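thread: overnight batch results

M.L. [08:02]
morning all. the overnight job finished for the chain we discussed friday. pasting input first so we're all looking at the same thing
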Amino acid sequence: MVSLKMQQGLYPKMMSSILSFPSSSPQKQPIDFDRNTCFQKEWQRPLLVQGLASTKTMVALAKHLDFPWAPCPLTTFSCGEWGCSVLPNMHGTSAIVVHDFHEKSDPLMALGLLCAHLKQAKAERIVLLAPYLPYGRNPQAMNVLIHILESFGIQCLITLDPHGSEWMPQASFDIRMMSGMPIFLPALKHTTITRIISPDSGGKDRAKPWANRLGCPLSCLSKKRTPQGTEIWHPNPDWAGEICLIVDDLVDTGGTLSQACAYVLNQGAWRVMAAITHGVFSKSCLDLIKTSGLEALWISDSIPLSLSSDQGGLHILPWTDVFSTP
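M.L. [08:03]
and the structure it wrote out:
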């Protein structure tokens, strides 16, 4: 975050120096990112623009992608309202806005204001890179969010393991989904896994690449929510002595994860671990997980956490590593 004094000339000068690409530099993206199907080679002069994302995140992305990055031009007034520094001419630039919807207050207003200034600066393209996309569990709310993003002038959305896909046909812009699997594989390379578990049928497509990559079978649990809680079962739970890895997109209250873990252990599994992309961790989630019998939980920092890594079997990995694995 920058202060209001940036509006008095300092920020435009910083941006101008960043946007001064050498005349001999190629106008096409210099690195092939087909492995992520995220960035197109025809995008000219890609520039990472810091929205409500940490500086640590920006530095890591710039290193992995070999793109220049510009610091956040957003400002705040004493009353808490958002402002934005004047941007220099960005004609011909593909602005990739890195934004965190869980940072600060009113993140949508901050994003909209930033996009408005990018359009005013004549950016060729506005791409939103948001590792965690909120409202995925509510299709109606997600449709509202998509319409808001369209109104901002966003032409492409890149996100990590979104929840559900019912909303995607409603979007008029390009959507590119990254799998969180590359984040976790290096951390799991010395861990023996004999079975992948999806906590519900909706996560089967997400868990299948895990099973294929690790060369082990996949089991999908069935889940039913009742007034008394969540019921979990499987028609053929023959998992005696197995080392199971539960794979999911997010953990919120921890109810599904803890019940899935307890169920798998009760069916004879020897050890149960989990790899989950987004850690929402609401209410008493961590306390519930600690008593579930889960041996280890790997999550990404796609949602900023105040927790320390390697705490009670919790391992927090940088989501930007999704770009570091070939």
